[in-house]
Amino acid sequence: MARKETEEKEEKAMSIDTHSFGGVSQSYVDGQIDKLGTVAYLKGASYDEVIQGTWTLDGNTHYVKNETSNANGDGIRFKAYLTKGTYNLLFFALKTSSAPILSFRIDGDEVASEDMYSSSEVREVIKKTNITVNSSGLKTIDVVCDGKNASSGGYTIYFYWMYWVRVE
Questions:
Q1: Which of 6, 47, 66, 123 has the fewest beta carbons under 10 Å from its own?
Q2: Architecture category of domain 3-166 in CATH
């Protein structure tokens, strides 16, 4: 897939939702994503199951957080159909002074991680590239606290959404 086409898909995906739906219906968002092709959009508030921890939804900004459990190993699980290929992962989360290292796993295998520690609060879209999916099918995608920066005061996740954009 051409680099420009990949960049255009990522740009369109990120323009659909940055903080909340702002009154836009889920079906509208789904329709916009369907037009992109080869994109899986997973909203934090629509996880399939809790791996560990106590998770709550912030209704105003549409993120999920594990603020009350705040422990290493806390995580949430999503299910999504991904075709065989190479993907870029784009996700939107809050970096804080009490945030962990986030691990992204497909069917149990870590495919990306990001240190979410920041001395000040930062809402950020983070991009991870060249993630290989070896076979097509329904995948289990886990977002898990996996350790922390020595400067971090805890393991609190504020997670909004993620896009898996197929690039090859």
A1: 123
A2: Sandwich (2.60)
